[in-house]
Structures are given as structure tokens and as C-alpha cells.
Amino acid sequence: MKHRKVISGSLLISEPFISDPNFERSVVLICAHDDTDGTFGLILNQVSELFLADVLEDNIYPDVPLYIGGPVQQNTLHYIHRRPDLVEGGKELVKGLFWGGNFAQMKIHLNNGVLHPNDVRCFVGYSGWEEGQLDGELKQDAWIVSQTNTSFIFDTPSEDFWRSILKTMGGDFKVMANYPTDPRLN
Predict the structure, then answer these.
(1) 94-153 pLDDT, tens per residue?
(2) Quick one: which of 11, 102, 129, 166 could link to 173 by a disulfide (CB 3.0–4.6 Å)?
(3) What separation in angstroms does the CA of 170 have from each of 45, 49, 67, 107?
(4) Total structural domains in the chain?
(5) What is the CATH number of the domain that holds 54?
(6) Model's pTM, two decimal places?
(7) Which pairing describes strands 47-51 and 97-99: parallel, antiparallel, or unpaired?
């Protein structure tokens, strides 16, 4: 089960003791993946202390938390949402989950209260792998590949996300969800 094929919409779940601190207990949503251009993803469970209004010149009235999408280009802004009826042009990753789209529409609908902050997730930076790099990490068992649904992504609290996805996978993964952060404490 660890070596499922990575496609857009897949989740990469970090192994409990991954050595890269950028991805400790992280769950990455894969937005784009192909054998020649590499992989682009967004970490779903690393909330920053900033809000969307802190990084835009425009006023955004509801508090929309910013997540750290990854260590690459942290001066860029990305978002996912589950309201294609309000935000046109996004790429559907899994049923009902969209990456990007018309950013101006998103801002207007947030400010008008039509788009709820729980229906959108904004990120600074992203996670990226060059051609073949992710495959190498998968062979080293650094990641577990899984699938999910839109409700789980938006309705599961960030602090519980890593543990919750492993528990839903069952078996050995459910046991892995309870591993201590520091194995010396076991």
C-alpha cells in the first residue's frame, strides 16, 4: 500500500520519522505530477501565524489563515477550494476539490460573505520535486501515498490531519498514527 501511484489529487503522508524538518508529520496534496516536469504539492497541515489579509494589498475581511505550502518560493500564494460555482477556472484534483482559479472572484466572494473561509485554503510557498526525485523518496519509504476526499481535507482540523488520515487507512497505519514524535520516548 505504500507504493501506490502518485497522481494529481493524491496525498503524500510523511513517515513518522522523516528526516526533513520541512515535512515532519506532514500531509501533502499533489496538485500536479508527471514524469518529465516533476511534482507540485501543498502541505495541508502546517498553519502559519499569518492570515490572507496580511499578505495582500487588498482588504480581506474574514480571517482566512495562511498555510505553509512548502519550502519552495515562499513569496508565492496558492489556494484550493471546494466552490467551483463561485470561483471559475480551477483545476479539479479530486471530485469537488479545485486548485486555483479566478483569484479576483475568490476575494470578492470572501468579502461579500458568499464564500466561507472554510471552503478555501490558502498557502504561501509550495512543495516541489524535480523529475524522478519523488520516486526516489518513495523507494526510500519517506512517504505513504493515499487518496482522500474533499470533505476530509476541509473538515479535519490541521493539528489532527496527519494522525487522522493514518487512522482512516487502518491496519499498520492506524498503529503508526500513535508513534511518538521522538522515538526515544517510546
Answers:
(1) 999 999 999 999 999 999 999 999 999 999 999 999 998 999 999 998 999 999 899 999
(2) 166
(3) 20, 32, 27, 39
(4) 1
(5) 3.40.1740.10
(6) 0.92
(7) unpaired
